Amino acid sequence: MRGISKYIFSILLFLPASVFSQNGEYSRGLRIGFDLSSAAILAIEGEGVETAVTADMNITERFFAVADAGYINSVKTGPGYDLSLNAIYMRAGADYNFYRQNNDVVAAGVRYGFSTFSRETTSFMVEEGYWGNYTGTVPERTLGSHWLEAVFSLKTELFSNVFIGWSLRGKVLLSKKDGADMQEWHIPGYGMSNKSSTGGFNFYIFYRIPF
Question: d(Cα 162, Cα 159) in Å, to the nearest integer?
Answer without folding.
Answer: 6
